[in-house]
Automatic annotation (TrEMBL):
Record PANTHER family: INTEGRIN ALPHA, INTEGRIN ALPHA-8
Protein name: Integrin alpha-8
GO biological process entries: cell adhesion mediated by integrin; cell-cell adhesion; cell-matrix adhesion; integrin-mediated signaling pathway
GO molecular function: integrin binding
Organism annotation: Clarias magur (Asian catfish)
Gene assigned in the entry: itga8
Length: 478
């Protein structure tokens, strides 16, 4: 039964339920309220732009029922003069129409800024190939989008090119913009913040504080950075290249034992100490001698409060992290992806299938042993994306989606839907979404990016956005 009919049926049943519970079986058979797999809405972007590399829902400040979709396309060409493949973020109105559903958001219309060095003008920065739109995230009316491969010249006399990364924020329905490049500092070069790639990962806390990962700082130890969006906008000027935002926090460099660990490869937030100040959660996929770990970090002091360590070397544990309350006990739980995990059922023949780990919070900073979900497709990169979905089947427990973007014989990608329950998570997927774009050179990457837990069509059921950057497509399932 198509999901929409099931839902109409459900509403009908809701009315009848007080009359007779027996009727439910007569009307619908087995009741399963799920995503409609047959008719996803599709947005298309410019060919080769990697449209769909990042996605999010956007709730405008005023009319909160008018939800739309934001889509990052980090290889898009823009109207910025002299910039090649600067990357863009598109605003896509709901529902998609035949043409012009998506338009570029004008975060930055300018060329590279210039400086005078010994009497000649030189670029201060390099926006070509900067991957703007590799990440995008919204929090109510606030939006952040980043270019982790943005380079700048540094303050040195001999100009260098350091990939510090930069982000742009937008507020008030895209009427105000500001740039935020927290690693563009005097502390350049690989030993400093020169290779930071700020904005490689992004999130917001529930009170709207921006959280950025910069996995390349300090010889790739990586770092996590937080700042208030109001503070970023307050007193912002294009000329303030080396600007310290008030209240900004950055994790510091550690001893060289921590080199090459990539703190901040992924970030999320959650409540794990029983107060109301959320902690930061950051993936460190090459930390702990390459076993990978996930750090829970106090958001005030930026001190480490908890670690989850990976199970297998080079599995990329912490490639992605997500936080949701999967068993409905009011405590946030943690999900961690390890997309390069190898199944060693037969020691002689390991199979790279990927794995996702779920840690249930039992008490303040006390977690269950991990519950594991393992991929079934060789080289499918299962666990590349994990998205809290809200409660898609309306049973009172939150649900989650896991992407395996290169799964299947034609590498067309899969997304697995799992339902939460009192004991944690039903280990069998309730639904499997399949990509429908054959590989043309690069795989479509269906499920490389996922975002859920918002209701686009206002039918009270949360919807799911699935990106397929290799096909320059974004699907909406509802
Ligand atoms: Ca807390
Ligand atoms: Ca929980
Ligand atoms: Ca549910
Ligand atoms: Ca919906």
């Amino acid at each position: 039964m198509p999901a929409r009919e099931a839902r109409a049926c459900f509403r009908e049943i809701s009315r009848l339920i007080s009359v007779s519970l027996v009727l439910t079986d007569l009307l619908c058979g087995i009741i399963a309220f799920n995503l409609d797999l047959e008719n996803p809405a599709v947005y298309s972007g410019p060919p080769g732009s990697y449209f769909g590399y990042s996605v999010d829902f956007y709730h405008p400040t005023q009319d909160r029922s008018a939800v739309s979709v934001l889509v990052g396309a980090p290889k898009a060409n823009t109207t910025q003069p002299g910039i090649v493949e600067g990357g863009a973020v598109y605003y896509c109105s709901w529902p998609p129409s035949e043409q012009d559903s998506c338009r570029e958001i004008p975060f930055d219309k300018a060329n590279n800024r210039m400086i005078k060095v010994n009497g000649t003008r030189e670029p201060l920065e390099y926006k070509s190939y900067q991957w703007f739109g590799a990440t995008v995230r919204t929090h109510r009316g606030k939006v952040v989008a980043c270019a982790p491969l943005y380079h700048w010249r540094t303050v040195k006399v001999s100009g260098e090119m350091d990939p510090v990364g930069t982000c742009y924020v937008a507020v008030q329905n895209f009427s105000a913009y500001a740039e935020y490049s927290p690693c563009r500092t005097h502390n350049s070069d690989p030993e400093g913040q020169g290779f930071c790639q700020a904005g490689f990962s992004v999130d917001f806390t529930k009170d709207g504080t921006l959280v950025l990962g910069g996995p390349g700082s300090f010889y790739w130890q990586g770092q996590v950075i937080t700042a208030g969006v109001a503070e970023i906008l307050n007193g912002y000027s294009l000329k303030a290249i080396l600007r310290k935002v008030q209240g900004e926090k950055q994790t510091a460099a550690a001893s060289d034992d921590y080199d090459d660990s990539y703190l901040g490869y992924s970030v999320a937030v959650g409540e794990f100490t029983g107060d109301s100040r959320q902690e930061l959660v950051a993936g460190v996929p090459r930390g702990a001698q390459n076993f990978g770990y996930v750090a829970v970090i106090n958001s005030s002091s930026l001190s480490l409060v908890q670690n989850f360590t990976g199970e297998q070397m080079a599995s990329y544990f912490g490639y992605t992290v997500a936080v949701t309350d999967i068993n409905g006990d009011g405590l946030d739980d943690v999900l961690v992806g390890a997309p390069l995990y190898m199944d060693r059922e037969f020691e002689s023949k390991p199979r790279e299938v990927g794995r996702v780990y779920l840690y249930l919070q039992e008490d303040t900073l006390l977690f269950s042993a991990s519950i594991m979900l393992t991929g079934i497709h060789l080289f499918g990169r299962y666990g590349s994306a994990i998205a809290p979905l809200g409660d898609i089947n309306q049973d009172g427990y939150l649900d989650v989606a896991v992407g395996a973007p290169f799964a299947g014989q034609d590498r067309d990608g899969c997304v697995f839907i799992y339902n939460g329950e009192k004991s944690g998570l039903r280990l069998k997927a309730s639904q499997v979404l399949k990509g429908s774009w054959a590989t043309t050179g690069i795989p479509a990457g269906f499920g490389f990016t996922l975002r859920g837990d918002s209701d686009l069509d206002n039918n009270q059921y949360p919807d799911l956005i699935v990106g397929a950057f290799g096909a320059d497509k974004v699907m909406v399932y509802r």
